[in-house]
Amino acid sequence: MDTARTPPTPIVTLCGGVGAARFLRGLVRVIDPREITAIVNTGDDRVFYGVHVSPDLDIVTYTLAGRVDARRGYGLEGDTYEIVDALGALGHECWFRLGDRDFANSQHRTLRLREGAGLSRVAEELRKHYGVTTRILPMSEDPCATIVELEGGRRVHFEEYLARDGAPDEVTAVDLGEARRARPGPGVLDALRDAQTILFCPSNPIVSIGPILAMPDVRAAVRRSRAPVVAISPIVGGAPVKGPADRLMRGVGVEVSARGVAELYRGLIDAFVIDERDADLAADIEAMGIRTRVLDTIMGDVGVAQHLAEAALSLAASLR
Amino acid sequence: MDTARTPPTPIVTLCGGVGAARFLRGLVRVIDPREITAIVNTGDDRVFYGVHVSPDLDIVTYTLAGRVDARRGYGLEGDTYEIVDALGALGHECWFRLGDRDFANSQHRTLRLREGAGLSRVAEELRKHYGVTTRILPMSEDPCATIVELEGGRRVHFEEYLARDGAPDEVTAVDLGEARRARPGPGVLDALRDAQTILFCPSNPIVSIGPILAMPDVRAAVRRSRAPVVAISPIVGGAPVKGPADRLMRGVGVEVSARGVAELYRGLIDAFVIDERDADLAADIEAMGIRTRVLDTIMGDVGVAQHLAEAALSLAASLR
């Protein structure tokens, strides 16, 4: 099971968690799931309760398997919480609500990593276990912790910022230093080199797509690619669809808008799908040399996600 | 929470798992539980699924808390098995059926050990968590794995022998080498030195009481003690009440009888409680210089356990 040797796929997506996973559920309705590679952020990875948790890898896997807790967008549907509750009662911090079967998967990952299997191989084991045929590649097997810096100089892991502290407003910077020094995971550069279309999923541009693009080789591979590169905006009407992207973008001095996201991706993407509520920004984005398509991007159901995927692919086709 | 500093108790018991725990449930009806110290075998400890499991410590704790799965004699009542089932489905060996809340306790132990807390401190945390007031001391904080040697030279950990292989007959030896080299855990020697009564619970003499007595300092402390030392036989009518003691005793060349157990304890105990079905062995055991008391020892309910505890204590009192 050498992930680097599985054949490259025509479609390569850069992914965070919930937004990316919802988009992928639409994409796999439009194109054979086996023709898609998901390169997934590992900047949120962290050890909780002694087990290695990969939030975005798991969200993508569970969602593509149709097993995700749909209400929350993460975790497994119908999971129980015996372990975290018991550990909480024994005095352990338990703000990260990891379900029991989710815990088992992370324990599997931990045991396999300890045995010397790489994160990519474990991702492959889990996606096969869940019957997912889309290729799921961790962006890197190196430590890539995303650190959020807060007013007063406090530095916290992204999951501490998000899940423990409730994503407060006082972000002053986001430190992607580990991702910048990380090597891309097995298969990542090959996938990008051979891609016929590259999609940036509607994920947080700072802490989800940001860490992937922080790896210099990945950034260069995207820039060098002759495949059309299309992004989907995660910002609608000046606010993120989900999550704390607004606080993080503001914290690093980027305008909280589809235009702000376009600025971040400038030089890397050829086209950008933005929401109809942001139609007035299209001209500014076009002026950056980015082809723009205006659409309903709020993926309330999988039909919208499918429509969004179709639009992104047809936009890519028009650029070829 | 320095276990070595909690005050010594008048009653000190040497304990394995199920048999010892059932006896202790009777003992705590006769005497204030805070006046009892349980020195517990750790020869069965092993890492399962990446977590440090201490079977006998947990059985004693859960039983004294009234939380044990009464049918099995181990594990927690009403526990679920999400974690082991999920790990099994991912290809891990899952013959050791650890419940989810049981798993959480072992994960707590693992995390605390990794932080540098000793096994004794963790045992103290767990007994307090479960509201148990009897002092529970691991026999040692050092590795003490009991190894069973089988025909053909195969060497397996005791839990592999028992839970995985179903306790086969072809035992040729039991290797307590690790226990022999282990240092007694914090508080163990003090407890024995200050004991007014020492009781050997009706546990497997080879693999439960055996490892505790294999530590030279413990053996010397028992021998040196001026307190009466009373054992309760785990063998009734030539067979163990529970577990594979017969195969292990036979394997190491000891007669499978209360007399065989008395031979093992000779020089260490002053008195021995045997079952009424073994009344004909009393004379032989008395001839070893061991005062013998004949009684119903099958602890079908806690009333019998209480009666047994009363008998053991009155026998001890008569020796003072």
Please characterize this protein's 3D structure:
Two copies of one chain form a homodimer. In chain A, strands 5-2-1-9-10-13-14 form a seven-stranded parallel beta sheet, with helices on both faces. The two termini of chain A are 33 Å apart. Chain A is globular. Chain A contains 14 helices and 14 strands. The first copy, chain A, is α/β, with parallel strands linked by helices and 320 residues long. Helices cover 41% and strands 17% of the residues of chain A. Chain A has helices at 18-30, 55-64, 82-89, 100-115, 119-129, 158-164, 177-181, 188-194, 209-214, 216-224, 245-251, 258-265, 282-287, 302-319; strands at residues 11-15, 36-40, 46-48, 51-53, 135-138, 147-150, 155-157, 171-175, 197-200, 229-232, 235-236, 239-240, 271-275, 291-295. The longest helix of chain A has 18 residues, at 302-319. The first copy, chain A, has a domain at 8-45 and 134-144 and 177-319: CofD-like domains (Rossmann fold), CATH 3.40.50. In chain A, helix 1 links the parallel strand 1 and strand 2 (36-40). The A-B interface holds A 49-50, 80, 82-83, 86-87, 89-92, 100-101, 103-105, 107-108, 110-111, 114, 125-126, 129 and B 49-50, 79-80, 82-83, 86-87, 89-90, 92, 100-101, 103-105, 107-108, 110-111, 114, 125-126, 129.
